[in-house]
Specification:
Length: 267
């Protein structure tokens, strides 16, 4: 996201949900023009390749120019950005935007979908995330992609809380932790629980409570727009935990493989 809160072209392609509008002003209008004239690469999932790929977009020869463009935007203007997969040119990603001086920039269509990308990204977590939570993660991203803020947060929150509970189950096996935190842990707010589990959760999660701190406040008082704003932070918090769990699992598997090799080696 750009410094003034107006998305970059790449944010519009891969992060911004459908049907959420972003209004521009005189300082951000150049970013609107940059979106409509986009040339470059987009890192996203290729449905046909079934893997992430770089898609290359070429600015159309007769695309909009700055002069008189804002006048044209007094009426709705539809912008279509197509990009070709760098592996196979016939594989195409497509993004459709509605631009209007009154309403701003709104993404009204995209292919591949956010859910398609989420399914791909989830593949690496299959060893450390239950099937139930894999489905929940996919639903959360799909809802977010369609600007459903509260619903997307609810699914992701369940996963986050389950992962923190798993860290707690690991912590209670540690006698030192149990003597320090065990008695009052259940009464702690979410932020306090994460802080108490600092040795069992990613340091980035513990150091940046904004990633999850709003969970202690409850969701009933949050607007849809606020939920949409908070969703990427909560998803990052979940990913931090999953990445750590995956790293621990891979190290454990490597140690076991090494032990097996050493035990089978004759001296």
């Amino acid at each position: 996201m750009s410094d003034n809160g107006f998305p970059t072209p790449h944010d519009f392609f891969v992060s911004v949900p459908l049907y959420k509008s972003y209004k521009w002003d005189d300082t951000s209008f150049d970013k609107v023009l940059a979106l409509t004239r986009f040339q470059g690469s987009i890192d996203t999932y290729c449905v046909e390749c079934k893997d992430r790929s770089l898609f290359v977009a070429d600015y159309p020869e007769f695309g909009p120019v700055r002069k008189d463009f804002r006048t044209r935007l007094q009426k709705p203007y539809i912008c279509v950005i197509k990009a070709k997969c760098s592996r196979v040119n016939e594989h195409v990603a497509c993004y459709v935007f509605r631009l209007n001086e009154k309403d701003g920039v709104t993404k009204i269509g995209q292919y591949p979908s956010g859910a398609d990308t989420a399914k791909q990204d989830l593949k690496k977590y299959r060893k450390v995330l239950s099937e139930e939570h894999q489905k929940g993660y996919t639903k959360a991203v799909g809802l977010f992609a369609h600007s459903v803020g509260a619903g997307s947060i609810v699914y992701l929150r369940k996963i986050f809380e389950a992962l923190v509970k798993e860290a707690h189950q690991e912590a209670i096996k540690d006698a030192a932790w149990l003597s320090t935190h065990g008695a009052g842990y259940s009464a702690l707010r979410m932020g306090e629980k994460v802080a108490a589990l600092d040795k069992f959760l990613p340091s980035d999660l513990v150091r940046h409570p904004r990633l999850y701190g709003f969970l202690s406040q409850g969701l009933h008082g949050l607007t849809e727009d606020k939920c949409l704003e908070l969703f990427p932070m909560l998803m990052m918090a979940v990913d931090f935990i999953l990445d750590q769990k995956l790293e621990k699992l891979e190290k454990k598997q490597k140690r076991e493989a090494l032990d097996k090799l050493l035990n089978n080696t004759q001296t």
